[in-house]
Amino acid sequence: MNTIINIGRSFGSGGGYVGQAIGKKLGIPFYDNELISKAAEEKGFSKSIFAGEEKRSLFSVSSFFSSGRLGYLDSGYVNDNVLFKIQSEVIRSIAGEGDAIFIGRCADYILRDMDCLDVFVCAPMEFRIKRLMENEGLSADEAENLMRRKDRTRETYYNYYTFGAWGKADNYDLCIDSSILGIDGTADFIIDFGRRCGKIK
Q1: How confident is the model over 109-137, as a mean pLDDT?
Q2: How many domains does one find in the chain?
Q3: 107 in a domain, yes or no?
């Protein structure tokens, strides 16, 4: 059984860093936007399809494919549902090959038929704003506006493709506030939880 951990996260909570910490502690490959993009490229798609935010968008054929894989299309553009289908195939292929940690991208929904550990990392608004101010050099208003916009984008993306509710506790095995234990402590807690419930080897 492969160890598959899917991590959703509110913006500014440090969920991506938590995923990286888990990966280092367990020796498991970690897949965020950049690494999923590389995997997509290896499978014949332009890595630009996963670049940037988790949001619905439109890509031209010429910028989408890196090896002429046009079987999905009968027009000059890739629609949202085709894009999500290809993303799903890449994520499922990675998960089928071995242990993996996925950040965002609806991986919990895409891999819902597999025995995965699904986690949502959150933190209080004040903590996230302060963290963004320190890490990004933003004012309090700028940090709050960015946080709200990113959360709204992620929520819209997740809810549209999964018919679920982003960040709602009953969609996940574990929801955890990263402000309490910090990045490493949160990672350790998730690992312990995963082992106790038999989803981490």
Answers
A1: 97
A2: 1
A3: yes
